[in-house]
Amino acid sequence: xxxxxxxxxxxxxxxxxxxxxxxxxxxxxxxxxxxxxxxxxxxxxxxxxxxxxxxxxxxxxxxxxxxxxxxxxxxxxxxxxxxxxxxxxxxxxxxxxxxxxxxxxxxxxxxxxxxxxxxxxxxxxxxxxxxxxxxxxxxxxxxxxxxxxxxxxxxxxxxxxxxxxxxxxxxxxxxxxxxxxxxxxxxxxxxxxxxxxxxxxxxxxxxxxxxxxxxxxxxxxxxxxxxxxxxxxxxxxxxxxxxxxxxxxxxxxxxxxxxxxxxxxxxxxxxxxxxxxxxxxxxxxxxxxxxxxxxxxxxxxxxxxxxxxxxxxxxxxxxxxxxxxxxxxxxxxxxxxxxxxxxxxxxxxxxxxxxxxxxxxxxxxxxxxxxxxxxxxxxxxxxxxxxxxxxxxxxxxxxxxxxxxxx
Length: 407
Prior knowledge:
- Helix content is 78%, strand content 0%.
- By secondary structure, it is mainly alpha-helical.
- It has two domains: 14-194, MFS general substrate transporter like domains (Growth Hormone, Chain: A, Up-down Bundle), CATH 1.20.1250; 213-398, Up-down Bundle (Growth Hormone, Chain: A), CATH 1.20.1250.20.
- Helix 1 (14-32) packs parallel to helix 6 (138-169), helix 4 runs antiparallel to helix 5 (107-135) and helix 9 runs antiparallel to helix 13.
- Keywords: Membrane, Transmembrane, Transmembrane helix, Transport.
- Residues 16-395 form the Major facilitator superfamily (MFS) profile domain.
- It is found in: Endomembrane system.
- One of its GO terms (molecular function) is transmembrane transporter activity.
């Protein structure tokens, strides 16, 4: 797909890639760095704030909801005013808003600032993904999509530990680390470049190439449903472990860390799986792994079985984001990349936000418990895997000479 309103691309190399990958990692850092201080926030504000039971969790999870709501707007702004300038502004706001809670003594104000912080995260996520699509094509684009997911996983694990260590001293300490991205802004100014866009004349009202709306909607649905299934482990595993009599915060934390590690492994496996199975075949595989992991989790009677389920599930989730993101990028024209990737980001975070609501709805509809709901959703994931397998087989029969990576 070509767009006459976008000038030829400059030569793009590792420097641009490094800056974009570091920018992308800010989004995971925004959530994991403050998660370990949740008990300290309760201890600080619980005795003086009647709504602490509602507001403290919202201070941690609120940015995710803000990302879901603001990502489409961020995408429109990126298409209208440019990716680079919006990314730099959002990074500046990320640093300032991220550190502000350390100076506040009112829980309601902290929640408000965290919601604004989520808006900055939405712009960063959307701009970084859009710049990847702007700068690279074909296999190079897929490579940087995967690098992005891997970098986010590594930085998430690192800053989860860092946030926990700093939080031992004071709940305010981790927030000061949000000032670190200020060091990234000079590199963004120097290294990144904005594709030059010309105002279309009357004969160029519509650019060459059209958005593949079917592929776009399928990608949105895949990432939404995948996040609903993927976030089950994050939210429900501690509940299931307590039900097994495992109340040690260390063991529960180890299970969460194990899931994060397996997600990273899935991201590393994804390029090979995509080459061997194609996009549809890889979707069938990852949904099957998610289904198996959820089934093991729902039926686990020991801590080791829980860990096995979390591990298998994490590998599937690790392949999900790059395998859903790449077709969405390819479905868009250069002039719609920002809006399209904004929609992708919104679908991802709405799926995370909806996950516990979906589990609750299944419990109510089936009259079952958490284990029964997770088992039902495991079957739904397996059904999705079968549909993608049928799509893969159908495409192979209709175009036997097409390389697997294209399907």
